UniProtKB/TrEMBL annotation:
This is Glutathione transport system permease protein GsiC. It comes from Ruegeria denitrificans. It is found in: Cell membrane. GO terms for biological process: transmembrane transport. The chain crosses the membrane at residues 9-30, 135-154, 166-189, 215-232, 270-295, 315-341. It comes from the Bacteria.
Length: 348
């Protein structure tokens, strides 16, 4: 088991380096850098002025050197301009040529400085990630138990009226995008003209003071979309398990149907849905962009939209690192969970 985890960590490290390099390369293409120069400098800058601005700040160095500086494995770029302005890899107010560390990258905890929010990227990511984490927690609390219950009930008796009804409900929720269900919920439950006005307040207020009235609709919008997929996978797995030979043997022995479901079928039926549930974490982290934008909930997805729309390169890179880390860690947990849920994998 230890060797398996060690190999997985090696693959995770290699994957993280490859993915972050791809994102770094794409965000540092010259058109993006040109847009950054004109945004931070002057929109009327000539091509020569843009090239001079980028060259003075180290953006025209070879990509591998810049990537090493961003990681913190290569010495950072520092320069004092003719007007006395100090620029370098660590773009933060108050730094001087004497106080700037030689290595200044994410390995040293230096995430850069946001050109949009005018704050350290690490502070921004931490705050927005906390908001999305709280949203994810309540989505998982609502989504996972509901999906498992629906999937198990539908899969217990394949082809029954209950199975067809719950399967249809699962397909409808999965086929309805969040921006559709979110708009419908807003129109029905919050509008004062045509709606019921059941939920008062906004999701923006929920960041400081979350209540049922201002926080439930975004949670419900995300949970409904993900619930159908988990329920369908659970139903398919439960249907397959209920036709297994050991289930038939238990029935012939006179074991009651509830005991067959709970004690014999449920654990084996949860192996496939477990992977699907773990895959929801990366989706919840980055897939809530639409919902957070729709409800104006300033979380991780909202920060991604702001960074992409305003060409905030340092913030985009930090968000990509966090996203890659979450994906790889959840996949590792999924593989380890597989081992404990399925004894055949553990023996092999």
């Amino acid at each position: 088991m230890g060797l398996f985890i060690l190999r997985r960590f090696g693959v995770m490290l290699l994957t993280a380096l490859c993915l972050t390099f791809v994102v770094f390369f794409l965000t540092n293409l010259y058109p993006n850098l040109e847009k950054l120069a004109k945004t931070q400098g002057n929109q009327r800058m000539s091509d020569e002025q843009v090239e001079a601005w980028l060259g003075n700040r180290g953006y025209l160095q070879p990509t591998l050197i810049k990537y090493g500086q961003w990681l913190g494995v290569a010495p950072g770029f520092t320069k004092t301009l003719d007007d006395g302005t100090f620029v370098g890899t660590c773009i933060r107010p108050g730094l001087t040529e004497e106080t700037t560390p030689r290595f200044c990258g994410i390995l040293q905890g230096e995430w850069g400085y946001s050109t949009v929010f005018k704050d350290e990227v690490g502070t921004i990511v931490g705050k927005r990630l906390g908001n999305t984490g709280y949203l994810m927690l309540w989505v998982l609390i609502l989504m996972v138990p509901s999906a498992l219950i629906v999937g198990v009930l539908a899969g217990m008796r394949e082809g029954s009226a209950l199975d067809r009804s719950l399967s249809t409900l699962s397909i409808i929720t999965t086929a309805t995008p969040e921006y559709v269900s979110g708009v419908i919920f807003i129109a029905i439950f919050t509008s004062s003209t045509v709606g019921l006005k059941w939920f008062k307040g906004t999701a923006t207020q929920a960041m400081d003071n979350p209540t049922f009235e201002n926080f439930f609709l975004p949670v419900l919008t995300i949970a409904l979309y993900g619930m159908g997929y988990i329920a369908r996978m659970t139903r398919a797995s439960m249907t397959e398990v209920m036709t297994a030979q050991y289930i038939r043997t238990a029935r012939l022995k006179g074991v009651s149907f509830p005991n067959i479901v709970v004690k014999h079928a449920l654990r084996n039926a949860l192996i496939a849905p477990f992977t699907v549930i773990m895959l929801q974490f990366p989706w919840l982290l980055n897939g809530v962009v639409i919902v957070e934008t729709l409800f104006n909930y300033k979380g991780f997805g909202w920060a991604l939209v702001q960074a992409a729309g305003n060409n905030d390169i340092q913030l985009l890179l930090a968000i990509s690192v966090v996203s890659v880390f979450v994906v790889l860690v959840t996949q590792l947990i999924s593989d380890i969970g597989y081992v404990y849920l399925n004894p055949r994998i553990r023996i092999s």
